[in-house]
Amino acid sequence: MSIVMDTLHISAITEELNNAEVKILAELFEVEDYKSGEAITPLEKPDHLYILAHGEIAVRIQSGDAQSTIHVLKPGDLAGIITFVGGAATQHSAALYAIGDTRVLSLERTKFESLINSHPLIVYKVMRGVVRNVHSIVRHMNAQSSEMSNYIFRTHGRY
Question: What is the pTM of this model?
Answer without folding.
Answer: 0.84
